[in-house]
Amino acid sequence: MEKDIEFNEKQHMYRHSMSHVLAKAIKELYPDAKLAIGPAIDNGFYYDFDNLTVSAEDFPRIEEKMKEIIARNQDFKCVEVSKDKAHELFKAEPYKLQLIDRLEDGEKITVYYTGDDFYDLCRGPHVENTKFLRGFSFKMNRVNGAYWLGSEKNKMLTRIYVYGFLNKDDLKECIRREEEARERDHRKLGKELGIFMFSELVGKGLPMWLPKGYIVRRELSDYIINKEIALGYQHVMTPSLGNVNLYKTSGHWEHYKDDMFPAMELDDEAYVLRPMNCPHHMMIYKNFMHSYRDLPLRLAEIANDFRYEASGALCGIERSRAFTQNDSHIFCRPDQIKEEVEGVIKLILDVYKDFGFRNYKFRLSLRDKNNTEKYFGNDDLWVKSENALREILKNSGAEYYEAEGEAAFYGPKIDVQVESAIGHDITLSTVQLDYQLPERFELEYVDEKGERVRPVVIHRAILGSLDRFVAFILEETKGNLPVWLSPVQAKIITVSEHNDLYAKSVETALKENGIRVECDLENESVGKKIRSAVLEKSPYILVLGDKEMADGTVAVRKRGSKDTTTHTLQDFITELKLAISNKTL
After folding, report:
1. Residues facing 138 on adjacent strands
2. What is the DSSP letter of 411?
3. Which of the four pLDDT bands, split at 50, 70 and 90, describes residue 312?
4. Within a 10 A sphere around the Cβ of 289, how many other Cβ atoms?
5. Does the annotation mark 327 as catalytic?
6. What is the helix (H) or strand (E) element at residue 250, kind and residue range?
7. Would strands 34-35 and 40-41 be described as parallel, antiparallel, or unpaired?
8. CA distance to 87, 214, 215, per residue, from 194 (Å)
């Protein structure tokens, strides 16, 4: 363990030293560039510059200059300076001056020299001399924009990323993983497969689902709704906006308004696009008087929500400003909490089994005891809620860990953290226990003694955001969606025009059996048509020529295979319908 720590500290120091080498290389190649900051990160380092325009085409030149600087055997020398001296040294570097002015009076200021002609504001540590960096493995990664100090209010700078490792094999493995991640990126796959699109004219972070993407969404929606109906959920539909007073009552306005779109003033009232659905569902519950015999009441909705995410945080449909939640609120008696939460966990596991998910963990998300002003409600209710969820997790036998500060502002929750194929830790499902909103909305039911008492609310989302779920599935499958989810389940390819009529009859037969099918009758070679269908990731490709037409058969090529097998049309339909109904992975 100590060796691992020593190795990581050494690697961090080398990466930090290399960021100075990068900065020096840029200043030598582009003297007018202005220095910002350049830290070490998990897979290397980066440096931010102003007044600099570079692209990947410039990388070989920059990399060569960095190697040249390393070969000069220049010392890294630390010099402590006064604030006045620092101002003098960096008078031509506006971003360094801002950093200096942010320092407290009397705070130690150190400058690191690389040779005699380059210096940077830095705390260190660094290697003693550039000669120690000769065996360090590095490779230019990418360049993109980054706001100064991470704030959208500041200027956009040019950030150059560089891979960097002590071990050459680690560098190769990192690059391999990054290339794999790029191939799996849902933004790339979504565009290639015609799933969704964005338009600057429509607005940042506002996805538009294309015909094939809408099929995927509809299939997911039908899938989870059918499971919920079988478990006694009742589905509702509520508006995508609400009066500000609704969110003041719920507490969201006080605790969440910075993440909401601005209020719209209409007819002496203020409305906002809703960021979540629980306030609406509270009002549906309150519309009727309930008996203890009516509970649990499980309300569910496939609901459109809106959150004003920072533009720098937007990431395709994984994190957007408009999204759709598979949401539900269970109103129950205190004695029903255990059974209801266990039922939700069982449903989560059932869904994960259908999709073949294995790399996931349960997280008990608690409030931050040292920062309780972020949350509302009293301490007793928080302790009661946290203990109840902890006990349920223990009794379920599920492996879980606890995370302070991850609770919702109105209550603790169980989150299911799923590790994606590209290494992201994503919250897909969540179960939240809430004593607070029933108090704020004054919800009631009549108990067995005839007295009016508060119900408990369980917030839960199984697929979470449908948008994020689709992003996750695209990356997990590399776009090779299960046949039941695939927008096109079978692609028909003809050998020649002579086979077009037969192809249309096969297409009709498939459609009559509820199979989503496309027919490629273009005047192209069979090889080209097959390559196109492979790129579209069609689960089944049917090649129809004179022999198939004469025999009334279909030549079938399954996704991932180069072999072709011949079936009667009816046998193929039976096989495909079985794969769809069984939700074969």
Report:
1. 164
2. B
3. confident
4. 10
5. yes
6. helix 244-250
7. unpaired
8. 54, 10, 11
Distance CA 561, CA 554 (A): 16
Catalytic residue, from 96, 298, 459, 529: name it. 459
Give the Cα separation of 536 and 538 in Å (integer).
6
Catalytic, 329? Answer: yes
Q: Can you tell me the distance from the alpha carbon of 546 to that of 331, in angstroms, rounded to the nearest whole number?
A: 63
Bigger pLDDT: 529 or 152? Answer: 529
Residues 6+ apart with CB under 8 A from 429: 348, 351, 415, 416, 460, 461, 462, 463, 464
Catalytic residue among 48, 96, 159, 278: 278
pLDDT in tens, 171-201: 999 999 989 989 999 999 999 999 999 999 9
Give me the mean pLDDT over the 433-438 stretch: 90
Catalytic residue, candidates 307, 363, 460, 529 = 307
If we measure between CA atoms, which residue out of 14, 11, 16 comes closest to residue 123?
Answer: 16
Where does 445-499 have alpha helices with state H? 466-477
Query: What residues contact 307, with CB distance under 8 A and at least 6 apart?
Result: 259, 260, 261, 275, 321, 323
User: Is-catalytic flag, 325?
Assistant: yes
**In whole angstroms, what is the distance from residue 119 CA to residue 114 CA?**
6
- Pick the catalytic residue: 48, 327, 434, 520? 327
Residue 37 has pLDDT above 70, yes or no: yes
Write the pLDDT tens digit of every residue in 212-249.
Answer: 999 999 999 999 999 999 999 999 999 999 999 999 99
Cα-based torsion angle of the residue sequence 41, 42, 43, 48 in order, rounded to the nearest 10 degrees: -20
Could you identify the residue written with the tokens 């995370």? 403
Q: What is the pLDDT of residues 339-364, one digit of tens each?
A: 999 999 999 999 999 999 988 999 99
Give the burial class of 475: count Cβ atoms within 10 A of its Cβ; 0-12 exposed, 13-18 middle, 19 or more buried: buried
How far apart (Å, rounded) are the C-alpha atoms in residues 482 and 473?
9
pLDDT in tens, 381-412: 788 888 888 988 888 888 889 998 888 877 88
**How would you write 518-583 as a 3-class SS string?**
EEECCCCCHHHHHHHHHHCCCCEEEEECHHHHHHCEEEEEECCCCCCEEEEHHHHHHHHHHHHHCC
Can 491 be counted among the known catalytic residues? no
Would residue 516 show up in a list of annotated catalytic residues for this protein? Answer: no
Question: Strand pairing of 553-558 and 540-544?
Answer: antiparallel
Q: Which residues contact 236 (CB under 8 A, 6 or more apart)?
A: 281, 284, 299, 300, 301
Q: Which of 126, 159, 413, 460 is catalytic?
A: 413
User: Does residue 307 carry a catalytic annotation?
Assistant: yes
Residue pair 566/548 in contact (Cβ under 8 Å)? The answer is yes
**Contacting residues for 223 by C-beta, under 8 A, at least 6 apart:** none
Whose CA is closest to 31, among 130, 149, 117? 117
Write down the pLDDT at residue 1.
Answer: 47
Q: How confident is the model at residue 421 (pLDDT cuts 50, 70, 90)?
A: confident
Q: Which residues contact 443 (CB under 8 A, 6 or more apart)?
A: 282, 285, 286, 331, 437, 454, 455, 457
Catalytic residue among 274, 329, 529, 537: 329
Residue 290 among the catalytic residues: no
